[in-house]
């Protein structure tokens, strides 16, 4: 419990600093819709992709979406399937796209009944013996996330995608070929590094079933 509170305090401070660093960049959802045609083939017209390998962008949080697209554009988060998609977009255009996708409601998913008990435990309580913080501390108990803080909502996200990202964060803890754009504090990399394959699969399944 103490570890979880410490993680939450560090995360709050980091995002407070991030907010100051980002400044105010307000997106226009209508302008974002006009830019979204090329995104729809993979992410769906309203940001609810049907293919589990492509993340649902709907309701993911404006701040989080903007940061991820900027990281992809600027090479901090290499995503082969996104190659060239946002390379020539300005910060304002990316903010408009973020506002558009965040304005939509995310569709729900279904958790594997056999993994719910383990997934719920990890999501709500973490793994104390390995100092793995609870996911709910940042992403909220309901999985709705914390939009202003930059924590994405996870409820209804494709389990395969969440599992893949956790595995990439785990790899990124020791190897730069993994996902490393989670900040210098390495919160996500540290959490994922403490999880087994089964635990990652279980928590990914659990969040996909949150409404």
Characterization of this structure:
The protein is 50% helix and 0% strand. The chain has ten helices and no strands.
A few lines on this structure:
By secondary structure, the chain is an all-alpha fold. It is built from ten helices and no strands.
Taking the sheet with the most strands, its summary is: none
The whole-number mean of residue pLDDT values reads 90
Q: Rough shape?
A: globular
Percent in helix? 40-55%
SSE sequence, one letter per element: HHHHHHHHHH
Decide which structural class fits the backbone.
mainly alpha
Tell me the β content: under 5%
The count of helical stretches stands at 10
- How far do the termini sit from each other? 25 Å
Multimerization status: single chain
Return Rg in Å. Answer: 16 Å
Number of strands: 0
